[in-house]
Amino acid sequence: MIHLSTRSRNTPPSPIRRLAHLARSASEKGVEPYYLNIGQPDIHCPRLFSEGVAQHADIHVSYAPSEGIQVFREAWASWMNREHGIDTSPERYMVTMGASEGLVFLFTTCCDPSDEIIIFDPTYANYMGFAEQTGVRLVSLASAFEEGFQLPDTSVIRKHITSRTRAILLCNPNNPTGVLYGEEEVERLLDICHRYGLYLLLDETYREIVFDNKPVTSAMKIAPDDEHVIVIDSLSKRFSLCGARIGSLYVPSNGLREKILHLAQARLSAPTIEQLAATHMLKQIEDGYTAEVCATYQGRRDCLIRCLQKIPGVTCCEPSGAFYLLAKLPIEDAEHFASWMLSEYSQDGRTLFLSPARGFYSIPGMGEDEIRLAFVLEEKSLEHAMKVLEGGLEAYKSVTK
Question: In the chain, N or C: fewer CB atoms in 10 Å?
Fold first, then answer.
């Protein structure tokens, strides 16, 4: 075989998508999977976005400025002020192709190869892929299922800081656990970053999706001018615009923002039409839109937990935000079970596409009996999907004795 780079060989397959070929095969056989593996919202995007696309149907589609279209950056900053009372300068926003590109930019600008970023297991699986692409070493600190995935003590975090540590990375609300970390926890991490001269990278992609009337937490409100803070954001989840590929970085540091701009210039620009359409949407979106979205997901969370509690041997941690939860199954190998469900099991013509949780842990041996469930289906579909899960677990036990 012609040479393949070490980085490409070491980049792990996505636990969210790596069983997609089995899902396609099931569909070809007439068995339709419930897609609980991926955070693809089924809620329609705001009509205002579609209107914005239509308004620009006849324009010359040129490159956008590498830092993002100015009116879009202004619209995003203005929406943050209306939604959360956070007054930020549009100049601090760098528009990226989804949050993913923003994270790659940060790994590249904040770290040299072999530098370290502290993360908390379980974590968003694609962080591991970004680390392999950029030569960054992720230092994983465990958070326990049995303790609700709370962050480690400060002393534990400090013990893992070395001369190569450059940042601490946290997704809040969390993917894959659904844990919402409050202001005290964010401030605790920021204090550590101040003491050791580190960046605090806050992935706030799910910021508005919080349950039980808990307050939204944002580092932009806690420390809007702190140069240690960088906020990663995206339109994908709260507005159901995953395919638009529009994200942003909020970067108070002028020096860091300049270096990120150099990377952005090398890739030219984020999508033009999508930025213009999103500008139209953000300027006119009604107050209460995200609260309505939140209420929908809270109803689905409650439905999913009720159903899981009825399945013998299954336990889960109740999420306070995002639209995921981790569930422990009464089996030894969730990876094998997820593959078996797609290739061998169906009930009423349906099966399940699940994400084995092993891929969300970088610490070996963790998550072997866990799955991540995305509650991005209507409640009736979730109820039937959990009946399929219960039937699948019973059948799986009989074939793996």
Answer: N
Q: Which residues pair with 210 in a beta bridge?
A: 321
Residue 89 has pLDDT above 80, yes or no: yes
Task: Using alpha carbons, select from 80, 128, 301, 311 the residue that is nearest to residue 212.
Answer: 301
pLDDT digits (tens, 9 = 90+) for 168-214: 999 999 999 999 999 999 999 999 999 999 999 999 999 999 999 99
**Which of 147, 148, 219 has its CA nearest to residue 182?**
219
Determine how β-strand 350-353 pairs with β-strand 355-356.
Answer: unpaired
pLDDT grade, residue 71 (50/70/90)? Answer: very high
Same domain, 140 and 200: yes
pLDDT at site 17: 82
* Alpha carbon distance 63, 11 (integer Å): 31
Angle between helices 47-55 and 272-284 (to 10 degrees): 130
Q: Say if residue 8's pLDDT is above 90.
A: no
**What CATH number does residue 332 fall under?**
3.90.1150.10
**262 with 363, same domain?**
no
User: How much is the CA Rg of the chain, to the nearest whole Å?
Assistant: 21
d(CA 13, CA 9): 10
189: Cβ contacts below 8 Å, ≥ 6 apart: 151, 157, 168, 170, 200
Residues 222 and 331 placed together within one structural domain of the fold:
no
Taking Cα atoms as reference points, which of 207, 211, 241 lies closest to residue 39? 241
Instruction: Provide the domain limits for residue 243.
Output: 47-284
**What pLDDT is recorded for position 12?**
81
Per-residue pLDDT of 111-139, as tens digits, reads 999 999 999 999 999 999 999 999 999 99
Q: What is the dihedral of CA 235, 52, 284, 270, to 10 degrees?
A: 30
Q: Are 33 and 27 in contact (CB under 8 A)?
A: yes
Tell whether 235 and 376 lie within a shared domain.
no
Give the C-alpha distances (Å, rounded to integers) separating 191 from 141, 168, 314.
Answer: 18, 11, 38
Token duo for residue 269:
């620009």
Single-letter residue type at 357 = A
Task: Locate the DSSP E strands across 65-172.
Answer: 93-96, 116-121, 137-142, 165-171
90 phi and psi angles, rounded to 5 deg = -55, -25
pLDDT at 321 (0 to 100) = 98
pLDDT for 244 equals 97
Q: Tell me the C-alpha distance between 87 and 77, whole Å.
A: 7
Q: What average pLDDT does the chain have?
A: 96
**Do residue 171 and residue 234 come from a single domain?**
yes
